[in-house]
Each structure stands twice: as structure tokens, then as C-alpha cells.
Write a structure and sequence with these properties.
The structure is a single chain. With about 260 residues, the chain is mainly alpha-helical. It has one domain. Helix content is about 80%, strand content about 0%. The protein is built from eleven helices and no strands. Helix 5 (about 105-125) crosses helix 8. It starts with 9 loop residues before the first helix and ends with a helix.
């Protein structure tokens, strides 16, 4: 059943986020888990391969890991936003279909994420506040890139327009969700650290035996796969909420927009 597109309060938006996630947990968890498991496998393989490879080998592996991580984040976020849009329309979708829809746009989404990341980092270096402003200003750049298929510069400009006047509201959503996600992450990490301390005493993560490292990291992967979709779902809904508020965006326009790539 399709969702009514109307302006939402912060409470309503968060409620719809968690309701959507709860009703389609398997879909969103699967979309997040597959890329995270790929990164996990690369981490474990890297630990075995880099040992004895020297500083140069470790450096090459580090660059490859960063690239893989960013690519999987872009893939997961994009596929999640596609799934949210399909659910808004009341149409069924699957993990494979969501990944299939986003795959041709993966390069553009990755460039948008890197562009925003560089702007945020520069802003944080400039006394932090400009970085926070950049986060809020470009909070909808990825949803725009995924759902409107714009250029990189177009996605950034469009996000700045959609968020203008509502960045305090977006900050509140960010803050509340970050606190919630941190609490959920601690539910795994604290007990895991207690178990590790009981087995190995006070040792750094890089001093753990391989099985201990795999145990700890696998738990982190599962936790990340559980919490990661929440923020993405929320900002996909924020994107539509801003369009409803500023452009009187309705369900018919949304359906035409999502059908366009499929019929191209």
C-alpha cells in the first residue's frame, strides 16, 4: 500500500522511518549486509596477505580497502533509497532488483559522496562550524543523485535548495538518529570488549589472535548492517518531505520519475 505524501513533523518522519524499517527489515538488512560482508571478507583476507608484505604492501592494501569501503557504502545507500521509493509507491522490490537499479549509477553516486566528504572535511578544518553547515546543506545530495539522476554539480545545488530554511530540522534528525545508532552499536561492542578482555586481558585489537579479531569484527559488521539503513531510510523520506513542502510533489510525479529509467 502506497504512503501518503504530505509534510511530516520530525516525530512523524522518525516514526515512519522506523515503521518502514521494521516492516521490511529483511529487505533493508540484506541490502546493507551484503556489502558489509564483502568488506569483512576483504579485511580478513588482507590480514593474512599483508603479514610479511612490508610497508608498501600494507599501503596498497589500505588504499584498496578505502576504495572498496566507499564503493560498498555508495552501493548500499543507493539501493536502500531505491527500495524506500518503491515501498512509498506500494510496489514490491527485492534485494537483487534494488542493486540492479542502482548499479549503473554507482560511479556518479560515489563521486557525489566524495565531493560532499571533501567539502565537509575542509569545513571541519575551518573551525568545525562550516563543516557542520556543509553536512546539513548537502544532506540530500545522494538522494537527489539516486532519485533524480542529476549530475554531480546538479545534485549539490539541488540539495542546497531543498534544505534551505530547514537545516535546523535536518540537524535535529541527524542528532537523534546518531544518538540512537551509537546506543545500538554499544549494545554489541561493550559486551564484546568485556569478553575479549576476559580471554586476552588488556590488549589492543591489532594484538588479538586471528579468531578473536574475526569474532569482534564480524559482530561489528552485523551491528553496522542493522543500524546503517536507518539513516538512509530517514533521509530518503526527508528528500520527499522537502519536495512536498517546497514543490507540492505528489505520488503521480514520484511514479513517473521512478518509471523513467525502467522504460529508457
Amino acid at each position: 500500500m502506497s504512503q501518503t505524501l504530505r509534510p511530516l513533523t520530525v516525530g512523524e518522519l522518525l516514526d515512519r522511518t522506523f515503521s518502514c524499517y521494521r516492516r521490511h527489515f529483511g529487505l533493508f538488512f540484506g541490502i546493507a549486509a551484503l556489502p558489509h560482508l564483502l568488506v569483512f571478507a576483504f579485511q580478513v583476507a588482507g590480514m593474512l596477505a599483508v603479514r610479511g608484505a612490508g610497508a608498501f604492501g600494507a599501503l596498497i592494501w589500505s588504499f584498496a580497502f578505502v576504495f572498496l569501503y566507499l564503493t560498498t557504502v555508495a552501493l548500499s545507500q543507493g539501493a536502500t533509497m531505491i527500495a524506500v521509493s518503491e515501498i512509498q509507491l506500494g510496489r514490491g522490490t527485492s534485494i537483487a532488483q534494488a542493486f540492479g537499479r542502482i548499479r549503473p549509477r554507482l560511479g556518479e553516486i560515489l563521486v557525489v559522496m566524495l565531493n560532499v566528504g571533501v567539502r565537509v572535511i575542509i569545513g571541519l578544518i575551518m573551525l568545525i562550524v562550516p563543516g557542520v553547515i556543509a553536512v546539513l546543506k548537502y544532506a540530500l545530495a545522494v538522494p537527489v543523485a539516486v532519485l533524480e539522476e542529476t549530475t554531480v554539480s546538479g545534485a549539490l545545488e539541488r540539495s542546497a535548495t531543498l534544505t534551505k530554511g530547514h537545516r535546523g530540522r535536518i540537524f535535529l534528525i541527524y542528532f537523534l538518529l546518531m544518538v540512537f545508532m551509537w546506543i545500538v552499536a554499544m549494545v554489541w561492542q561493550f559486551p564484546a570488549m568485556v569478553v575479549m578482555a576476559a580471554f586476552f586481558g588488556k590488549v589492543r585489537p591489532d594484538q588479538l589472535p586471528l579468531w578473536g579479531y574475526i569474532f569482534f569484527e564480524f559482530g561489528s559488521v552485523v551491528t553496522q548492517a542493522v543500524v546503517a539503513p536507518i539513516m538512509t531510510i530517514a533521509f530518503a523520506l526527508v528528500y520527499y518531505d522537502e519536495r512536498v513542502r517546497k514543490e507540492a510533489f505528489d505520488l503521480t510525479q514520484m511514479m513517473q520519475q521512478l518509471d523513467r529509467p525502467a522504460t529508457a
